[in-house]
Amino acid sequence: MKLIQAVVPPESIIRVQEELNREEVFRLTVSDVTAVVGDTAKGMTYESRPAVRLEIAVNENFVRPTLDALYRALTDVEEGAGQVYVLPLKDVIRIRTGERGPEAI
User: Fold this and answer.
1) b vs e for 32-51, b when ≥16 Cβ sit within 10 Å of the residue's Cβ?
2) What does the pLDDT look like over 11-66, one tens digit per residue?
3) Average pLDDT over residues 60-78
4) CA 63 from chain center: how many Å?
5) Of 13, 23, 39, 103, which is the most buried if we count CB atoms within 10 A?
6) Threshold 0.70, pTM exceeds
7) Ramachandran class of 101: left when φ > 0, alpha when ψ lies in -120 to 50, beta otherwise
């Protein structure tokens, strides 16, 4: 199991969801965040800009399709397409049913 986090521009969220739906990835958490970016060309000035953080828990067989969907949705973004992090996920518990592990995803 993996937790995929992506920080992306807010205007790209619809396209991201469409691409994830094509890969049958429907469950995700979306949070409004502020991205702070540095610009070395301007002498390490920092700029804050609105962003969206996606958190997507997936089983191993959905890691590559999820990453491919994010890539397709974000490659044409001019600037600030964001980052994607892939983290190991030790356990998942679905509170309503008590299911654990891959079945809870």
Assistant:
1) eeebeeeeeeeeeeeeeeeb
2) 999 999 999 999 999 999 999 999 887 766 667 777 888 999 999 999 999 999 99
3) 91
4) 11
5) 23
6) yes
7) left
55 vs 27: CA distance, rounded Å:
9
> Which domain, by its residues, includes 34?
2-104
The domain that holds 62 is classified in CATH as: 3.30.70.120
User: Nearest 10 degrees: CA dihedral of 31, 9, 67, 88?
Assistant: -40
Compute CA 11 distance to the chain's CA centroid, rounded to the nearest angstrom: 14
94 phi and psi angles, rounded to 5 deg: -85, 115
Helix, strand, coil proportions of the chain in percent (round to 5)?
35, 40, 30
Amino acid present at 44:
M
Alpha-carbon gap, residue 10 to 74, rounded angstroms:
11
CA distance 70 to 22: 11
